[in-house]
Amino acid sequence: MELSEVRQQLDGIDSELIQLFVKRMKLIDVVADIKKRDTAKPLYDPVREREILMKVRERAGEEYGNSAHQLFRTILELSRARQAAQLIPATNVAARVAAMCASEKAVFPQEGRIAVSGVEGCHAGVAADRLFPRGDIIFMNGFRAVVQAVQAGLCRFGILPVENSVQGSVRQVYDLLREPDISIVRSVRLLIRHVLLTQPDAKIEDIKTVYTHEQAAGQCSKFLTALGVDVIPCTSTAHAAQRAAAAGDKSVAAIAGESCAKLYNLTVLSDDIQNESNNDTRFLCITKGAQLYAGAERMSLMVNCANSPGALYHMIAKISALGINMCKLESFPIPGTNFSYRFFMDLECNLHQDGILGLLCEMEHSCDSFTLLGNYSELTG
Fold first, then answer.
1. Domain 94-191+280-380 adopts which CATH fold?
2. What's the CATH number for 194-270?
3. Is the per-residue pLDDT at 109 higher than 90?
4. What is the mean pLDDT of residues 295-309?
5. Apex 326 CA angle, 322 and 293, nearest 5
6. pLDDT class for 359, splitting at 50, 70, 90?
7. Which of 8, 41, 82, 218 counts the highest number of beta carbons within 10 A?
8. What integer pLDDT is reported at residue 89 of this predicted model?
9. 232 to each of 217, 275, 329, how far by Cα in Å?
10. Which residues pair with 328 in a beta bridge?
11. Pairwise CA distance, residues 37 & 279, whole Å
């Protein structure tokens, strides 16, 4: 048999498969209608799914059983996602989405009281100025203090650095995002440029101690290693500049942003100190309650999958079934457990898209824990 003949037969089989798939999905719509009338019938029937998969494996035989099992698991996932989109059960995430959509605002504010971790001149302050040109910035001591200020209503918004293109994620911030009644309403990505700041009369050979933030130290690790100095961690790079200025000592320097030079009467001794030139940091803007602003195109979720084979794959399959792009997926160990993980994910979608609410409800139903962190837009520069 020639290849062209085989391909012709395959095309014919594919055509039959598509027709049968469409026929099956139409019956799934009928099932969803029945479940709408009879609320006692659950969306997910694990017993029936196991029976289906067992029969599939048996009928496919030993050689093709595993492949047939995977194929039908995907079909069942698609079917369940289709039902979920139509049923929209009364879940926590459904209530949160309803509250967000009901209070959706057309314009993102330009002012307000903004909580920022650090001191004057820190990068988070720059991010706050970018998001809120007329904002009133309140500097806090640490990321937790920022979240607490927002939760208590002391500040309307808070700014938190969440990841860097060189050093990766700020894990402490991811843990804080799970705090009650907090949502992400915007993000901004800034190009970070570190410089070495010293007393005006200092020389490179004078430097014995460098103050900086641990993320900045990692981003300038090659320079620091070559310099051979003691590195003292600070809560922010601006705080590092502040401490170096207060020391009044030629042997003490700081790695911070260039704007801190003028603020703290320091001199830029070296400006080519980063490991990589493409050093971007992403900052999140949080607020209290379930808030949504028009134009949102990025969604952040935190989930705990069941600790079973294929659990993560099948969660991703639900997302893929709707044609949604996942632009971030990262795992974090769950404190107090052995090798159990929580997943943070970013999706490119909007709460108003068809099927999104059903997807979120299905994920909440099938995951050990599930948190919708926010639906928002991201600025760059």
1. D-Maltodextrin-Binding Protein; domain 2 (3.40.190)
2. 3.40.190.10
3. yes
4. 88
5. 85
6. confident
7. 82
8. 61
9. 9, 19, 32
10. 346
11. 55
Mean pLDDT of the chain: 90
Domains 3-87 and 194-270 share a fold: no
Q: What is the pLDDT of residues 65-78, one digit of tens each?
A: 999 998 998 888 78
pLDDT band (50, 70, 90) for residue 83: confident
Q: Are 282 and 188 in contact (CB under 8 A)?
A: yes
Q: What is the 3-state secondary structure (H, E, C) of the chain?
A: CCHHHHHHHHHHHHHHHHHHHHHHHHHHHHHHHHHHHCCCCCCCCHHHHHHHHHHHHHHHHHHHHHHHHHHHHHHHHHHHHHHHHHHCCCCHHHHHHHHHHHCCECCCCCEEEEEEECCCCCHHHHHHHHHCCEEEEEEECCHHHHHHHHHCCCCCEEEEEEEECCCEECHHHHHHCCCCCEEEEEEEEEECCEEEEECCCCCHHHCCEEEEEHHHHHHCHHHHHHHCCEEEEECCHHHHHHHHHHHCCCCEEEEEECHHHHHCCCEEEECCCCCCCCCEEEEEEEEECCCCECCCCEEEEEEECCCCCCHHHHHHHHHHHCCCEEEEEEEEECCCCCCCEEEEEEEECCCCCCCHHHHHHHHHHHCCEEEEEEEEEEEEC
Please give the Cα distance from 88 to 85 (Å, whole number). Answer: 6
In the structure, what pLDDT confidence band is assigned to residue 184 with cuts at 50, 70 and 90? Answer: very high
Domain boundaries, the chain: 3-87, 94-191+280-380, 194-270
Can you name the CATH fold of 3-87? Chorismate Mutase Domain, subunit A (1.20.59)
